[in-house]
């Protein structure tokens, strides 16, 4: 049973890894642009919205039956289908920093189109025991596989986790630049859709680090995880204060 579980983890890891390599190649080389158009198609984006609605249905079902859902299948389905949407901005973006300046983008990528629906959905789904992060997020799933495959572990000092709040602060600040139409936002424009070496390089370093530091992206960079932690701490303190009364 254990060996079968490890085999499934390796298969899922390989599938997500080579899917990421293929997306990177398709974004870099001219031959891949035609293939990538599929992820802009209306039916594909509509299907992802349906999957998010279904995720809320599963969340409700979980609370009704009080049982854990079969996360293995959820990781496969949501991990594979949402991976292109979350990964493509790293490889080709109109801005130097991906994911953030979508409001000012002249031709939005799949993430830019879905973000107004997807980002709030991720946060709401996390209200139930981090359902998005633990069962649905392709980045989280991939890093779980990395932690299972790599035998080596390095522990960072606890204060390093404060870096996630610094990242959230910077992301919020950059988002506000576009929200209020600040001219400072133009500093981050490339003026064209391009392969951004810095974004790809940072992503590669995070990928490598996650083999040795479990969930490196999730713990030290991901804004969704950081916001969820803030909300969880607030809910915990509120519940504690209510009980003391």
Q: What does it look like?
A:
The protein has helices at 2-28, 33-36, 42-65, 71-91, 110-125, 131-136, 138-149, 163-179, 197-209, 216-220, 223-244, and strands at 93-95, 189-194. The protein is mainly alpha-helical and 245 residues long. The chain has one domain. A two-stranded antiparallel sheet has the order 1-2. The longest helix is centred in the first third of the chain and has 27 residues, at 2-28. The termini are far apart. 28% of the residues are buried.
List keywords for this structure.
single chain; 245 residues; mainly alpha; two-stranded antiparallel sheet; 11 helices; 2 strands; 4% strand
Q: How are the SSEs ordered, and which strands pair?
A:
Blueprint: H1 2-28, H2 33-36, H3 42-65, H4 71-91, E1 93-95, H5 110-125, H6 131-136, H7 138-149, H8 163-179, E2 189-194, H9 197-209, H10 216-220, H11 223-244
Antiparallel strand pairs: 1-2
Helix pairs in contact: 1-4, 1-7, 3-5, 4-7
């Amino acid at each position: 049973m254990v060996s079968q579980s490890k085999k499934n983890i390796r298969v899922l890891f390989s599938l997500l890894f080579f899917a990421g390599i293929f997306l990177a190649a398709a974004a870099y080389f001219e031959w891949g642009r035609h293939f990538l158009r599929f992820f802009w198609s209306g039916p594909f984006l509509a299907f992802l919205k349906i999957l998010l609605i279904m995720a809320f249905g599963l969340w409700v079902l979980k609370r009704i039956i009080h049982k854990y859902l079969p996360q293995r299948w959820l990781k496969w389905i949501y991990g594979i289908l949402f991976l292109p949407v979350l990964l493509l901005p790293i490889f080709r973006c109109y801005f130097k920093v991906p994911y953030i300046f979508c409001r000012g983008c002249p031709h939005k990528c799949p993430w830019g189109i879905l973000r107004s629906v997807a980002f709030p959905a991720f946060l709401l789904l996390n209200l139930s025991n981090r359902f998005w992060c633990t069962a649905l997020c392709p980045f989280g799933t991939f890093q779980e596989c990395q932690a299972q495959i790599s035998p080596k572990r390095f522990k960072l000092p606890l204060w390093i986790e404060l870096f996630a709040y610094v990242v959230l602060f910077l992301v919020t600040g950059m988002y506000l630049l576009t929200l209020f139409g600040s001219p400072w936002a133009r500093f981050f424009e490339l003026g064209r859709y391009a392969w951004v070496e810095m974004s790809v390089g940072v992503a590669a370093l995070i990928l490598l680090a996650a083999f040795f530091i479990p969930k490196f992206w999730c713990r030290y960079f991901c804004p969704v995880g950081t916001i969820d932690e803030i909300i969880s701490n607030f809910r915990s303190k509120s519940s504690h204060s209510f009980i003391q009364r």
